[in-house]
Structure formats: structure tokens, C-alpha cells
Automatic annotation (TrEMBL):
Residue ranges of domain MacB-like periplasmic core in the record: 31-223
Cellular localisation: Cell membrane
Name of the protein in its database record: Lipoprotein-releasing ABC transporter permease subunit
Keyword Transmembrane: yes
Transmembrane segments: 26-52, 281-306, 326-347, 354-371, 391-410
């Protein structure tokens, strides 16, 4: 079988560092450290990038799946909200719309009190703009109005835990005098509103919304607000990252004045930017770890060049060219880098696919929760593997290893046969 001489000798050097000589053992040890550094760096970077991808996915699909991409408000009491909903839903770039009445209030159970955002919804349209139905029982929305004497309310799990209430129990919701939940109303009540509700369901989305969101029927929210402010239309758009442009164009197209509102970049944009910035910073730090490990190959090859001066001189006297000597040591360093990044890539893929279950298992074993949704966006560690990230990490690690071989290989190609043989013999 044809084997190029530089690659053949380079691979022999890479695999023949287990001898009993002190220098050979030291070279073997340093080469092993370089490979371990590459393995750990590549694996860690893939896992970190997958976790950041997971947080990005949870923001887009879970948090922004429940909350709207944008909301249009108007403080006028004369708005026909179902008609406005249909008009908004037909606008370019909008995929669905639903009327909503939002009220900031306080929920109380005995001495326990917690703030919450009460949303009055239409069960027929809310499912078009929100995935909240995925976390509820099929009959939940109907239960909101099943008992006219005792209206129902749907609570997030975080709120229920703070108030220490369960499904079927009762609580009070207090809405202060000040204006509407959207921040732009004038308010029209002379006193605070108080209403009692029966808990018909508790949802657990695993997000920060579990600690702030409650759902009631549209008419109940309107009564809590005293008929003043807070009404609006929630919408979903086909291009989430272009929601602000679509939202502004929609406001300009509406026939009446007094419309205002916000899109998700105003409510959750800082979270999205924080995730992207964290991803970039952490990726940079881990990339530096890979770079350091890759350039450890330099010290390995320098020691090999020093140890093999005699062999290099003999090869030169036998007719080996400068290029062949250079490629010999490049082949050795490339093998170390290739094995390191391939094993690291494999471990990174395995880690990315199992890190969520692994962290969940550790939480169960030790009885602690590393992430809480009242502090972090979600209450578990998400992960989403992108094969493009794997290819990028493996390719960059191998390229850095290859670059690290150039200096020692150039030094080896400049060894003078006569001087080297004189020194050795």
C-alpha cells in the first residue's frame, strides 16, 4: 500500500512515545495533556453552545409561545374589540389575533398576598395566539364561566405555591384604583375592586410566567378594571424577529386614533439580548481554552524536534527534502489535534443530549433546584444540539492544532545534518 513518507514517519513518531527513556516519557506526557485539553475544550464548548441554544429556544417557543408577539391597546370605551381583532388578524405579517383585557392586581389567600397580571381572555381566540392551552386540561376554559355565582381563575404554579392554594379552593383578587395594566390608561375607578374566584386549574409552563400570570374570563377582567383601560388585542406574527416593524406598520394602518402598545422586544427583549451576549461571551472563553490546548501541541513538537535531531539529520542525508521534514512533524501534530477534537466532539454531542436529564437527576438526588423560574427564564436546564455548532468546534479546534504545528515543523526542517550528527556522535 502506498503511504507518503512524511505522513508515515510522522504517525510513527506520534505513536512511538511510550518508550522507557526519560525524554520520550516526558514528550508522551505533554502530548497526552495537549490531547486531553483539546478533548475537554471541544466537549465543553459544544455543551455550552447547546445550552445557550436551549435557552434561546425556550424564549422563542415557550415564553413567547404563551405571551403574545405584540399587543395593541386603546383607552377608548367605544372600541368594538371583536371587530378590531378581525381587522388586526387580516393585517400583513399577522398570523392570529385575540382580544384580551389586562389588569394588574393582588391575589390574597388569608394573610398571603402576591402581585399578579390578570388577563381576561376569550377561550375561542386565545388559543390562536398562545400555547397556554398546552398546559391546561381540555375543559379548563369552559370551567371559567361554568358557575356564574363563583367565577373561575387559572393560576400559574408559582402563584399557587406562594398563596398555598390548590384547584377547587378560593382566593380574592384586589385591583387598585390606578390605571390599566398596559401602562397607558387613565383609570376610571373611584375605589379599588375586589372579587372572589374559584381556582379551576393551575398551569406549570416551567417559565417565569408561572409566578406572574393568571387567566379569567373577559367579562370578569372588565369588571375588575371597572370598565376602564386595559383592553387590547394580542397578536402573533409570522416573523418574530421582525415583530417591531410589523407592529408599527399595523398601528399606522388602523383607522382610528389612540392606539398604542408594545411588542415582545419591549417586554422580553432584554432577556433575548442577555442570552445572546452570554452565548457569545461563554463561547469566546471556551474557545480560548481550546486555543490554549491546541497550542500546547507546540511544546510537544518542540521537544520531539529536539529529541529527534539525529533522526532528522539521517533523513536529510538519505535525501529527504525540507518539505518532507516539515510535513513529517505537521502530520504528527495534526494527528494529536484530530484525535483530540474528534473525541471531544463525540463527548460534547453525548453531553448535549444528556445534560438536561443529568441535571434533573442531580436535582432529584440532592433535593435541590439549580434553576428557579422566579429568577431564571425557565426552571430547568434546556439543551438543543445544532450539528453546525459541532462542525464549527471540531473544525476550529483542528485548524488551531494544525497552525500550532507550523513553528516546530519549520524548526525541524532547518536542522543541519552535519551539526546534528556531530552533536550526537
Amino acid at each position: 500500500m502506498f503511504r507518503p513518507l512524511p505522513a508515515f514517519i510522522g504517525l510513527r513518531y506520534a505513536g512511538a512515545q511510550r518508550g522507557g527513556q526519560d525524554s520520550a516519557g516526558l514528550v508522551s506526557f505533554i502530548s497526552g495533556l495537549s490531547m486531553i485539553g483539546l478533548i475537554l475544550g471541544a466537549a465543553l464548548m459544544i455543551v455550552v453552545m447547546s445550552v445557550m441554544n436551549g435557552f434561546d429556544r425556550e424564549l422563542r417557543e415557550r415564553i413567547l409561545g404563551i405571551m403574545p408577539h405584540a399587543t395593541v391597546y386603546n383607552a377608548s370605551p367605544d372600541i368594538d374589540w371583536p371587530a378590531l381583532r378581525d381587522e388586526v388578524a387580516a393585517a400583513p405579517g399577522v398570523t392570529a389575533a385575540a382580544e384580551v383585557w389586562q389588569v394588574n392586581g393582588l391575589a390574597r389567600n388569608g394573610l398571603e398576598v402576591t402581585p399578579l397580571l390578570v388577563q381576561g381572555v376569550n377561550p375561542d381566540t386565545i388559543v390562536d395566539v398562545s400555547t397556554i392551552g398546552n398546559f391546561l386540561k381540555p375543559e379548563t376554559f369552559a370551567a371559567l364561566t361554568s358557575d356564574p355565582a363563583q367565577p373561575g381563575i387559572i393560576l400559574g404554579q408559582g402563584i399557587a405555591e406562594k398563596l398555598e392554594v390548590a384547584v377547587g379552593e378560593h382566593l380574592s383578587v384586589i385591583v387598585p384604583e390606578s390605571g390599566d395594566a398596559s401602562g397607558g390608561g387613565t383609570g376610571g375607578r373611584s375605589s379599588a375592586q375586589l372579587a372572589g374566584f374559584r381556582i379551576v386549574d393551575i398551569f406549570h409552563s416551567g417559565t417565569e410566567l408561572d409566578h406572574s400570570l393568571a387567566l379569567v374570563d373577559w367579562d370578569q377582567a372588565k369588571a375588575l378594571a371597572g370598565g376602564a383601560g386595559g383592553a387590547g388585542v394580542q397578536l402573533r406574527v409570522d416573523d418574530m424577529l421582525n415583530s417591531f416593524t410589523i407592529f408599527r406598520q399595523l398601528l399606522n394602518q388602523l383607522p382610528h386614533e389612540g392606539y398604542y402598545g408594545s411588542d415582545w422586544t419591549g417586554t422580553h427583549g432584554n432577556l433575548y439580548q442577555a442570552i445572546q451576549m452570554s452565548r457569545n461571551l461563554v463561547s469566546l472563553l471556551v474557545f480560548l481554552i481550546i486555543a490554549i490546548a491546541a497550542f500546547n501541541v507546540v511544546s510537544t513538537l518542540v521537544m520531539v524536534v529536539i529529541d529527534k535531531h539525529g533522526d532528522i539529520a539521517i533523513l536529510r542525508t538519505m535525501g529527504a527534502s525540507t518539505r518532507e521534514i516539515l510535513l513529517t512533524f505537521v502530520s504528527q501534530g495534526a494527528l494529536v489535534g484530530l484525535i483530540g477534537v474528534l473525541i471531544g466532539g463525540l463527548l460534547g454531542v453525548i453531553g448535549s443530549l444528556t445534560v438536561t436529564d443529568l441535571v434533573s437527576g442531580l436535582e432529584s438526588v440532592f433535593g435541590i433546584q439549580f434553576l428557579k423560574s422566579d429568577v431564571y427564564p425557565v426552571d430547568y436546564l434546556p439543551s438543543q444540539l445544532h450539528w453546525g455548532d459541532v462542525a464549527l468546534v471540531v473544525g476550529a479546534g483542528f485548524l488551531l492544532s494544525l497552525m500550532a504545528t507550523l513553528y516546530p515543523a519549520l524548526q525541524a526542517s532547518r536542522v543541519q545534518p552535519a551539526a546534528a550528527l556531530r552533536q550526537d556522535y
